[in-house]
């Protein structure tokens, strides 16, 4: 079985120039930050910036304001800041009663990732766009916590436990009617799931502030490790060519600048969780943004390659081979047919690719409904008739082609 | 004394204009600069009398009646459940906040459907000088 290229140490996907300039303008202090801001302003086509850059815009707006920037892009950055402030505020406002209920019921919930960093460093809601809020509870409390979430309108998004285990074995992704999401974790990391694995994190948790209320957040070292490991999951586990978000770089930089990091504790925790290589891989991104963020000697204390015997790699490889190999094969077939191919075979391929985590039988059962939609029919019972018509049409076309060919060959 | 109805209400001052989000009702409020000063004063724990006293020390060139406008503005904030009576605010009221308050009378603009507002693309569909959520005319 081949090991994906990104598992081999040394493979590292550099940040795109536009993203790097934005990150430098936000993170780097003094002249370097100012220079990065000017370069970004000169080189950017604002109407064309991608979503990852859009999520960095609020922090850039704040950093630019602090640097006294009054350039032509300021109103456009402000527009994005106000937009994300509103969106994130709505999310946080929906989460606040859930946190209160969990606290009232005596469930120890630790706020993690973006919301955790914002709570720990008391960042304004606009600075850090969020798509969901991550909460960690003990796996023994998950049932009770899910009940509380459900009472507040947050229900799991995965229909079956098998789907959840396949997609997100360490958490329950829940959503309410307004599409606000809570990721209820029973393990802090996808890479490290097991009984008691998060006891240390829980014991070291400190107090932060969430919309004026006290909440528990991981200590800075744990927060930093979570930001790094979650940040590079796409390239490390799913063999993507780029991180699927860049906000973790800002989170990590803010933690390093805003809190005192015990780097010894950080390295020891990373090693004990089997994510030492992941942390090293992620820290290289931070170094590319600002060389001064990671003190000398830290990288040397982290692994240079993956611990291949770890549970994480074993599962990652399993997921990689089973899921991605099948996905790629189907994608190749779909590409060969083209987007306008509405033959049952291509429709089946598109249907199957969306349900790769389901069993074959389950996909088969839901296929008639999908086919009905793809063919624009009103009822499932119209399918056989439509299929027959397609078949006859196809035969007719073949017959015509054959007779044309015969005629041209006779000539 | 009044306090902000947290955590339902989330607010921030962006370039001198307060933006207030009512998470429960899904409303977006924008305050003008004078409204922002008054809101910040009340949120900081100032009493209506203290606000009026601070305003009366200023030159009377506003073109609006301070007593009347402050009472109207405060009533509106309470009616909309942005501020609630009781509590001491966040305790950061500084009378200097109200010094030199001039310009138009305090206003509060309400955008009613936040879910609809969030569909406005903050890059391509907004008035560039006003920014999101003000849509471009064309």
Quick structural overview:
The complex is a heterodimer of chains A (411) and B (138). Chain A has 411 residues and is α+β, with helices and mostly antiparallel strands. Chain A is built from 17 helices and 7 strands.
| C-alpha termini separation of chain A | 55 Å
Alpha carbon gyration radius of chain B: 16 Å
Number of strands of chain B: 6
**How do the SSEs of chain B run, as a string of H and E?**
EEEEHHHEEH
How many angstroms separate the termini of chain B? 45 Å
Number of helix segments of chain A?
17
Indicate the multimeric state: heterodimer
User: Domains counted in the coordinates of chain B: how many?
Assistant: 1
Instruction: Output the radius of gyration of chain A.
Output: 25 Å
The share of residues in helices of chain A is 55-70%
Tell me the overall shape of chain B.
Answer: globular
Give the overall shape of chain A, derived from the CA principal axes. globular
Task: Order the strands across the largest sheet of chain B as they lie in space.
Answer: 2-3-4-6
Strand content of chain B: 15-25%
Enter the CATH topology name of chain A: Beta Polymerase, domain 2
Count of individual domains of chain A: 1
How do the SSEs of chain A run, as a string of H and E?
A: HHHHEHEHEHEEHEEHHHHHHHHH
The total count of strands of chain A amounts to 7
């Amino acid at each position: 079985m081949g090991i994906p290229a990104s598992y081999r140490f040394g493979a590292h996907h550099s940040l795109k120039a536009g993203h790097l300039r934005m990150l430098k303008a936000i993170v780097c202090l003094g002249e370097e930050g100012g220079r990065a801001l000017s370069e970004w302003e000169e080189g950017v086509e604002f109407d064309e910036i991608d979503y990852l850059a859009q999520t960095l815009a609020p922090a850039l707006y704040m950093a630019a304001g602090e640097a006294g920037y009054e350039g032509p892009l300021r109103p456009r950055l402000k527009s994005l800041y106000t937009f994300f402030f509103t969106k994130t505020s709505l999310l946080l406002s929906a989460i606040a009663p859930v946190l209160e209920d969990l606290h009232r019921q005596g469930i120890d919930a630790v706020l993690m990732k973006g919301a955790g960093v914002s709570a720990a460093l008391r960042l304004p809601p606009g600075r850090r766009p969020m798509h969901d809020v991550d909460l960690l509870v003990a796996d023994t409390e998950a049932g009770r916590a899910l009940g509380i979430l459900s009472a507040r309108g947050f229900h799991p998004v995965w229909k079956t436990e098998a789907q959840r285990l396949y997609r997100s074995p360490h958490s329950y992704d829940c959503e309410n009617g307004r599409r606000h999401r809570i990721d209820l974790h029973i393990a802090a990391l996808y890479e490290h799931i097991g009984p008691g694995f998060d006891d240390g994190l829980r014991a070291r948790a400190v107090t932060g502030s969430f919309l004026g209320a006290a909440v528990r957040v991981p200590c800075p070292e744990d927060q930093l490790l979570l930001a790094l490991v979650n940040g590079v999951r796409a390239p490390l586990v799913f063999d993507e060519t780029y991180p699927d978000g860049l906000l973790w770089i800002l989170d990590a930089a803010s933690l390093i600048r805003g809190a005192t990091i015990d780097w010894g504790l950080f390295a020891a925790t990373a090693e004990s969780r089997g994510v030492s290589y992941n942390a090293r891989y992620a820290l290289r991104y931070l170094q590319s943004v600002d060389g001064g963020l990671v003190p000398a000697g830290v990288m040397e204390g982290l692994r240079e390659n993956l611990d291949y015997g770890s549970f994480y790699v074993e599962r990652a490889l399993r997921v990689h081979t089973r899921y991605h190999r099948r996905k790629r094969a189907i994608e190749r077939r779909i590409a060969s047919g083209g987007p306008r191919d509405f033959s049952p075979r291509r429709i089946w391929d598109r249907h199957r690719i969306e349900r790769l985590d389901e069993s074959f039988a389950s996909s088969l059962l839901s296929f008639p409904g999908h086919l009905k939609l793809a063919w624009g029919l009103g009822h499932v019972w119209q399918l056989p008739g439509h299929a027959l018509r397609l078949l006859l049409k196809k035969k007719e076309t073949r017959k015509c082609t054959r007779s044309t060919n015969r005629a041209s060959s006779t000539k | 004394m009044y306090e902000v109805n947290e955590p339902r209400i989330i607010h921030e001052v962006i370039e001198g204009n307060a933006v207030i989000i009512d998470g429960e009702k899904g409303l977006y409020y924008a305050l003008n600069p004078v409204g922002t000063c008054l809101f910040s004063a009340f949120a900081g724990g100032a009493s209506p009398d203290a606000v009026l006293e601070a305003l009366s020390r200023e030159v009377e060139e506003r073109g609006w009646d301070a007593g009347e406008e402050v009472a109207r503005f405060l009533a509106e904030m309470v009616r909309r459940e942005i501020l609630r009576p009781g509590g001491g605010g966040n305790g950061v009221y500084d009378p200097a906040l109200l010094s030199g308050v001039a310009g138009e009378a305090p206003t509060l603009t309400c955008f009613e459907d936040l879910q609809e507002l969030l569909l406005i693309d903050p890059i391509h569909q907004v008035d560039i000088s006003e920014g999101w959520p003000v849509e471009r005319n064309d």
